[in-house]
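Quick entry between incubations.
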Amino acid sequence: MTQPQKRLTYESVRMGVDYYPEHWEEALWEEDVSLMQKSGVAVVRIGEFAWSRMEPRDGEFDFGWLDRAIDLFGRYGIDVVIGTPTHTPPRWLTDKHPDVLPVFPDGSVYYPGVRGHRCFNSRSLRRYGERLIDKLAERYAGHPAVIGWQTDNEFSMLDSQSPQAAEDFRDWAYRKYGTLDNLNREWGTVVWSGEYSDWSEITPPLGGSPYQNPSFLLDFARFQWDTVADFQNGQIAAIRKHCPNHFITHNFHSYPQRLDLYKVGEALDFASFDYYPNTSPDKAATSPYSGALSLDVTRGVKRKNFWIMEQLSGSPGAWMPMWRMPQPGYIRAYAWQAIARGADTVVHFRWRSAPIGAEQFWHGLIDHSSVPGRRLAEFAQTSEEVRRLAPLLEGTAPEAQVAILMSHEQLEALRIQKQTDNFDYYENIKEYHRALTKLGIGCDVIDWRQPLEGYRVVIAPNLYLLDEEAAERLCRFAADGGTLLLTARTGVKNMNNVCVMRPLPGLLSDCAGVTVREYDPLGSDIVRLDTEEGGQFACSQWADILDPVEGERTEVLARYGGHVFFAGEAAVTRHEFGRGETYYLGTHPEEDYLRSLLLRIAMQRGLACAEGLPAGVQISVRGGDSGSYLFVLNLGREARKFRLGGIYAEAVRGEGLLSGERPGSELELPAYGVEIFRL
Amino acid sequence: MTQPQKRLTYESVRMGVDYYPEHWEEALWEEDVSLMQKSGVAVVRIGEFAWSRMEPRDGEFDFGWLDRAIDLFGRYGIDVVIGTPTHTPPRWLTDKHPDVLPVFPDGSVYYPGVRGHRCFNSRSLRRYGERLIDKLAERYAGHPAVIGWQTDNEFSMLDSQSPQAAEDFRDWAYRKYGTLDNLNREWGTVVWSGEYSDWSEITPPLGGSPYQNPSFLLDFARFQWDTVADFQNGQIAAIRKHCPNHFITHNFHSYPQRLDLYKVGEALDFASFDYYPNTSPDKAATSPYSGALSLDVTRGVKRKNFWIMEQLSGSPGAWMPMWRMPQPGYIRAYAWQAIARGADTVVHFRWRSAPIGAEQFWHGLIDHSSVPGRRLAEFAQTSEEVRRLAPLLEGTAPEAQVAILMSHEQLEALRIQKQTDNFDYYENIKEYHRALTKLGIGCDVIDWRQPLEGYRVVIAPNLYLLDEEAAERLCRFAADGGTLLLTARTGVKNMNNVCVMRPLPGLLSDCAGVTVREYDPLGSDIVRLDTEEGGQFACSQWADILDPVEGERTEVLARYGGHVFFAGEAAVTRHEFGRGETYYLGTHPEEDYLRSLLLRIAMQRGLACAEGLPAGVQISVRGGDSGSYLFVLNLGREARKFRLGGIYAEAVRGEGLLSGERPGSELELPAYGVEIFRL
Amino acid sequence: MTQPQKRLTYESVRMGVDYYPEHWEEALWEEDVSLMQKSGVAVVRIGEFAWSRMEPRDGEFDFGWLDRAIDLFGRYGIDVVIGTPTHTPPRWLTDKHPDVLPVFPDGSVYYPGVRGHRCFNSRSLRRYGERLIDKLAERYAGHPAVIGWQTDNEFSMLDSQSPQAAEDFRDWAYRKYGTLDNLNREWGTVVWSGEYSDWSEITPPLGGSPYQNPSFLLDFARFQWDTVADFQNGQIAAIRKHCPNHFITHNFHSYPQRLDLYKVGEALDFASFDYYPNTSPDKAATSPYSGALSLDVTRGVKRKNFWIMEQLSGSPGAWMPMWRMPQPGYIRAYAWQAIARGADTVVHFRWRSAPIGAEQFWHGLIDHSSVPGRRLAEFAQTSEEVRRLAPLLEGTAPEAQVAILMSHEQLEALRIQKQTDNFDYYENIKEYHRALTKLGIGCDVIDWRQPLEGYRVVIAPNLYLLDEEAAERLCRFAADGGTLLLTARTGVKNMNNVCVMRPLPGLLSDCAGVTVREYDPLGSDIVRLDTEEGGQFACSQWADILDPVEGERTEVLARYGGHVFFAGEAAVTRHEFGRGETYYLGTHPEEDYLRSLLLRIAMQRGLACAEGLPAGVQISVRGGDSGSYLFVLNLGREARKFRLGGIYAEAVRGEGLLSGERPGSELELPAYGVEIFRL
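Done. Structure below.
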């Protein structure tokens, strides 16, 4: 291996696996690790569920087995990431300190038996968890094989309503609002006589009804985000004290998470993601695109490259019946997709399927039989390719001139009050992202609070909550020459989830150059959308009836058609604003329209794009000091033959870095085929 | 305004809005009220959720803001109805007296946060509620703007199983049955060893399983009806003590209610209804008819005209995603439909959409933006029309020669034991009512215990429970010359929900002139129905196999057809009984058959009807000392052109009172068009 | 009646009814019993819900009414079976000893009100129940009318999590594993830090999540099976003490039951079943076959003839809306189906529909009206036929050369971890059984632990859990000349629900002559199955990719086809093993394929079969010392005309024992027609 010294360990491009030494007879370990080495495993993650083995009884620590495992990896040149095991408190702890257990919104306790049975507000959990992490960090700070840490596992919103959570929420509210008068006013509790007359009356949303005061519910979500971030900060402090040179990451999963990724990501060195693209033929048309979005979202958490900490290795099955088994090429193609979109290290879950416990059918690279098979071979092939190209790829990262803004506050607020039956904030983001991806236009997906410098186009779907700061930043972006795209349900509320008493899109009306005269919540009903060029499309979800602001250069791009009472009214507009422009989409058009609109913008703004990509084919570019590389992936179930034109035409006449072959005028990729070209 | 003095204030025909002064900065009030006056608002309802503002702390009353609001309305000539705010007990009360909170059948508490968090059995709620109402009534008894009161808000069955509810149910049962022996015998508790050996064993239906003793479950429902009526009586007494000249009403909602409307309506001066006709295009074919039924049901509560206390003003959205926005004409047309069917005052919910709280998207006449728009303009136009026609309409009321009998005891008993998968008592009433409405035949919908004098035709679907008194009254109606229509599942049980040991239709066999030999619970299966004239229809739900009683003049009108084993057996019969007749429908035929049968009856009994009404078009007549008026409403989404024949032919050659125009030989109404003619 | 003395009372072939004297005025009894006698009732079951009448108050027993009822039956020559009433503890008992009540997995209590409100672990229930049974048994031991006992009623899994259940489970686990180290190792609790550090930490599956450790969950099910068996053993001991000559049975119901029938059946003299074949036309194609399976399953519980303790007499309706009424012939045909498959006594539920209680619409032979009708007449006709043929049928039993293995451990384990979305163990058994039944091949359905001697073919679907003993027995069966049929998901786990680390089908690989290279969990996706003869079929659920073991005589019978990556790979194989053969089906083929495969086997193994049976027509043979009888039943809704060939050709030229007629070359049966021939 010829890794340049300048790269930090976590910026290496390489492959790994998740391993659970505690699940296997120790006699099996070396055989496993030796085969890992042969298969190209460079990193393992271990330990994240092993509390009961690290501390079998209160204060009795046993790290002997862990020492032996880590030493073994070290001997075989495999780096180790340790997961802190707070996701699974042991029974002696929950028995001794039941406050460790979350309390569900219906008042029932989340008992041990599954996993994730830990209330982030529990003082016992923090005390015991940090004590163990302190010991771990102290012990492995200097171990040459250990390179970093994963906090807990797959954080998610638990809505724990334990007494401690209630108490902490009261404190949080007190710190935010200072007085009950402020709180009552900002939350609008006067409605339904909900005014609090004493701080003790403030509780989590008891009963768990989703139909409570939306200002209160949004703040309860924010409180939980702060709680998880604070819980993680305690762990991070314990690790950094001993291991200042180790990295710390967390493995996010299953987007959209209600938990604010950006808040939880703040203190991390980089983000990780657990990537399980759906293997069902029914999902074959959408799964490669929602997967692409998940990767872009993960990259956006820290606006830098990331890890895959768990990557699909076989059919998952545990909470749900088993999925289809990944077919040949699937494991390799999706590993390359992750790398193409900014993953550096890709760790596959898991080495071998577990014979015990509730995830027996969450298949690893090797089946229960322990006979190495097709999937391990494919992994080994991929590892070999990754190892070969790593020197080129290290230090490169995806580059984008387009950003989609993502906001967990919007997501949560629009979950609390679902606008119409098919209105879904994250699904809307998916559709914009998919339209870009099908056009071969790379984009970043970033927190809506991030600076926008460097982008030419910013797409900001459904900015339902808005404040002066955000509005001003977006206006400035457009005024300074950017293309800003806004959609229906923008500027509806202030940040306390209270409706604004001004025409929509509220604080962004000037920038958009339109006001919403009235609206019709279409839901699943379909309405015709007529473009000024004579095209007819479908739209649904919502219909803002737009009035261009008088005296402004606002152009109507599409109008409602058909039999609705607002037929002929403006639906989509473009406003020349300062040195830039703002598009406003008052409805949710079908993908064909989105694609044609985004293509028009791409042409006008000079964005690199690739018209005519076949279904399932995705391209990405990673660039850096070592050059730029074009990834071409066929994530579909059919072989595809196609041309890449424009700026990519020349690149694909060069040698394919994986196959070593030069394609002719047409690229031909089998199902799950991958090729990489120097750009 | 030229209102004759003879009319009570609540019999005025006029328009109003619901307003929440406590939701807005006081600075905004006068602007609002002034605009209300300009828009034709004659009445407002206020106060029904404002307990925490009227009594911010235990015993500390603050009516200053309410004084100022009511004074303001008075200054602008707008009458005020005050809602008692017991629907939303304040947090200090639930905190101090948790017995105020209902307990769900699964044992969980209904916490504050939504609304309706009050157990009607709670002594604290009654004590505190009546204390507040006493203060309110005393204070506003003499205020010239205040004309009446609404009790609580939208009563419904809560199935509260609080300890006090259990104790009260025990008492209720003791008062009804006297001894456990009686109770055990009447409820048939011997089944499954359910015999009570001590009064303390009597509880609400713990666990909430719907599969418990049906006699017990029906009595538990009756107990709840009595509880709500008693709860309301406490409020009424407090009001009447101070305000003998004010009216008292309650706003019913969302039929069918499990709560017995007639029981709760007893002590009211008149009934009110909250009317939200569904705006979805998917419901366009049925919504105008189920709406018409709701209005007729409300009129039947007191057998007199009523109010709409909340009328659709915009898309609702809170518990559910937002509905479609009412299209132009919708608000006006449905206001006129309400008046056509006996509403005098129509109060729109609400003035302006709330920027705060959980009902932010339950849209008012004015949007959050506070910019008056299309919907307010339509309301103002309607107000102007109503003001113009009020002198004609005041004192008139819908008149009917047909009655449909409705019974909450049947509804509840048939809910407890659903007969077949598509058997639904209220849906069956809907179908009879819709068939009449499509024929232009007006009808009353009245409590099945009401006297039947004055009707020519009485339709009594599914009189499942029966006693001698009811049977005797129905027999007498037919014997005295009326046309009585009975259906399957009549006379199955006594009033204790116990099956009778005699051939069906039990106590009504003689009157019906048939007995049920056996039956087949068809459910959703479709069976053919062959009329004696050779027509073929479909029927479902149920099939009674009928034996005409020997020696009686019982004519078979339709028989089962097709491949069922009872093909050829009698399904529908007509029995000449005394000076009248009894129809018995042993099955549930499709609407086409119902319409043809009802048309035949209408012809024979000389009922006014209007064959050939287009879909969505409804007619109604209001008559009184000032004359009779024919309302013609197009509640469909398409313009309609049609003739009205028979007794209406001449009327519609006269001047339309709304447009001032005379239609030609054909009436032409746009979508949501309305016209009124002198009859 | 000419019953030979050698038959035990419970081996008589005859008809009965279920009767509840306590539900009726005593004045009605004799009229009822007299009509029963006229209708051919030879047996009644009584008492199983009458605890509150037998012991109205703690320790106060009242058997007077029961004496009078039993005496009355005796006078009319009707035998009596007494049900122990522990299914419905009286209110005084649950009030005094709330530990009698089960606790649901969500922590809520199963209150009285329905039935079955008894925790099998409750010490109070056992104490009070056995005290009452002791009194009953002592009292009726010598009564000439009483012939036997039914324990409790319709045992099922309750998953009670009462404190006593938790304590008993701890003990059970201690007795099984001895040490926590053993238990932790065998259950694999190390996963997710689930290791128990103290016995007190062992609880039932709190929270009730189905996604817990599968080894633990399977043992909790086994614990419950043992609990119910033990609970029943207490009752049986109390009965046998006084009534050594009475039989004891239990009425099983609603297969598949999660409760282990074989475990609970061990201590019984024979099994009984409550048989309610679905009357819906929608189920007409499947219900006769799933009914046939239920009967064969019941016969397999004790591998001998059985009783029907409750047989459909009219539309059921209670938990669910009413079903369709059985059409003419239905009651008779299904009674004969039961007898054809090994029922001796058939007791119809119930004499008359109950006017009281929650099962009012579970119709008896007589309607509430008490007017005897069509259904009673059909019952009486059937009774008369049964009485006439009883001398021939008594002592005969169904004989089979094929066995399907059934296992409650597999059922439970595959319920705990559903393999794919349409993978269902019992449904799979149904499909094999239906294919056999459509071919006219009789089979036994027996516990998978039973000896296999005497069978030519053994079908063992989805033997997911396996141990050496079972594997060895199956291998021996094949090696000794049997035909063994195995399917996908065989040998996956050991008996502790832990996956085995060897190629599948694990311990049966040698016997099957194949190993599973890898698999694809197809779920509902359809894949093509190509036979070596060129046939094309569909398969789903699962796809094992099979490698014939080298050097073995393993023949590939079918391969996967179409576009899957494993097209061309072996799916179905046949292995010559010792003197026999093993078929392995790596997938779940459609029924057509199953039928063609089973027909091929039947031909090769010389099994009697009847190709070309029309849909709904079933044949069965009962044989014994008195000869062999062929039952031909048309359980379909259409009349059928068909030939029976092969070994049945001659029999059906003889006289039909029911009609006394000789059919021509073709048999002709009306809908629900039945005929019986001497073989």
